[in-house]
Specification:
The complex is a heterodimer of chains A (99) and B (241). Chain A has 99 residues and is mainly alpha-helical. Chain A is built from 3 helices and no strands. Chain B has 241 residues and is mostly helical. In chain B, helix 1 (3-24) packs antiparallel against helix 2 and helix 2 packs antiparallel against helix 3 (52-77). Classes of the chains: A mainly alpha (99), B mainly alpha (241).
Chain lengths: 99, 241
């Protein structure tokens, strides 16, 4: 099967994630859209690993997953902290970096 | 049509549907569930592309750990918190959708014109086995990156702890202070030393909301739960609903 359909799917998912980051106001949903973009990039990595006949792409996708997990932990902690001080998880309310 | 193509044309629309649901649903919980659909679909696509290890890791790490973390934070922040539909920047929504469509068009047209080589058959790609091949790469060429990853994970865990911990509002009482407080007579009465009566003692129910009854049948003030009193959820002394 033609691997370019996987790449097209990856591009479509990435674009949907980017639109979500631009559209949504809830910080948690914005964060989920970032995760979707990372996953789309992973799909492209896995597909290119297969077309190149080497596993390096899969290793890179693996590292992307690790970094994404670390990013989620810290990001959610920051969202929790902002929510605690402002009682809101909207990115509009956090337009200033101070209280 | 090969089996892989059949799997792709079934899974790909589901993943795109999940992604659109993520962006379009108003409640954060629904977004999280749609994202889980997309991630499981991607795991299937990984497995069908001769990457079984990544497929399993995708299910365990993303749909298992990351999505649970998201759901926990949504529970803490408030499940029913939904996005406001008020536009803070005029025309931003239309502009964002247009930009996204344009971006997708550019990406898709560029990708579909590019010449991508034929896929290498799985027996050749995973000649030594998928997990074995990945392990020999990670622990040789990518060893330094792997070690740096461990430092990153520890830093992230400690950072999350530091950010999420909240200091005590009142200093914690030591055992000595607690003992002194307990045995100090209030108006010459030492009854605090025996401990407070448990709720529901001698009453008709032993639920926390039912106060204990004194020998004369009146409810004991001391057995009221402080939290329930604040919520005004206490029952009367008879233990009736």
């Amino acid at each position: 099967m033609n691997p370019s359909s996987y790449i097209v799917l990856s591009a479509v998912l990435f674009s949907i994630g980017a639109v979500g980051v631009l559209l949504r106001r809830n910080a948690l949903v914005v964060f989920m859209c970032v995760e979707l973009m990372l996953n789309a990039a992973n799909l492209a990595f896995v597909t290119f690993a297969r077309t190149n006949g080497a596993l390096d792409g899969q290793v890179t996708a693996f590292f992307v997953m690790v970094v994404a997990a670390a990013e989620v932990v810290v990001g959610l902690a920051i969202i929790m902290m902002i929510y605690r001080s402002r009682r809101s998880a909207s990115v509009d309310d956090a337009s200033l970096l101070k209280l | 049509m090969t089996g892989e193509a059949v799997a792709f044309w079934i899974i790909a629309p589901i993943t795109v549907l999940g992604a659109i649901g993520l962006v379009a649903s108003r409640k954060a919980v629904h977004s999280a569930l749609w994202l889980a659909v997309t991630m499981i679909g991607l795991a299937v696509l990984y497995i069908s592309q001769d990457a079984p290890f990544l497929g399993v890791v995708q299910v365990i790490v993303y749909t298992g750990a990351v999505m649970m973390l998201f759901l926990f934070v949504i529970m803490l922040v408030g499940v029913d918190a939904s996005d406001s539909l008020v536009e803070t920047l005029r025309g931003q929504r239309v502009a964002a959708v247009l930009a996204g469509l344009g971006f997708a068009a550019v990406l898709v047209s560029a990708v579909s014109r590019a010449t991508i080589g034929d896929p290498v058959p799985g027996e050749e790609l995973n000649a030594a086995g998928n997990v074995e091949g990945l392990a020999s790469l990670i622990f040789s060429d990518y060893l330094f990156a792997f070690e740096v990853t461990s430092a990153l994970l520890i830093t992230a865990a400690v950072g999350a702890l530091v950010l999420a911990l909240q200091p005590n509002v009142f200093p914690k009482k030591s055992q000595r202070e607690q003992a002194i407080e307990r045995f100090r007579p209030v108006d010459g009465d030492f009854s605090g030393a025996t401990g407070l009566p448990a709720p529901g003692v001698l009453a008709r129910h032993n639920a926390v909301g039912t106060p204990a009854l004194l020998p004369d049948g009146t409810p004991s003030e001391a057995s009221y739960s402080r939290v329930l009193r604040a919520r005004e959820a206490l029952e009367d002394g008879e233990g009736q609903q």
